[in-house]
Amino acid sequence: MATAAPEAAEVVEEEPKKKKPIVLIIGGVVGLIVLIVGIVLGTLFFTGYFNPKPVVDPELAEETAGGKKADNKPGKKTKDSPELTRFEYTYLQIEREFLVNVSGSKKVMSVQIAVMTHYDERVFENVKKHDFAIRSAVLDVMRQTTDADLVKPEFRKEIAVKIRDSINTLLEKYEDFGGIEEVHFTSFIVQ
Asked: Per the domain annotation, does 2 fall within a domain?
């Protein structure tokens, strides 16, 4: 029997399969999502979001009415009084005097001041902490005084209010709380 010669095998070369564009798009989207999640988690980590929160002591929360505030601002000091709740006023003498020339004059004004508050000691700690800045602010207010201002009957009260406002503005800038209620002159000399 005669066998037929095998036919020449057809050689078919297969073309390599092309990656589908949808796979590339999905890979890009997944990579972008991973990148965004990494950025968000990194930002939260570096801003302290994952740091443990401070434990709030219930006893400390009750002290809020007794002179301390939970929001880290000074609390008002109270006096024990059977009839009314009264606030205790405390004073702090600024150690050095303030000496300035009266504007447009040959006169010199020298004052010493004391500040008063009914908040706790943190106000005075802030005043001492920012002594140089407060001295500068007070001197700037005093430098604006003219001879005409000196003869006004209410001059001392007006300048005391201006000094108080400038001190409170400065303390609010640096400590987020002023707390000075009044400024009193313990010495006031104009020559």
From this structure: no
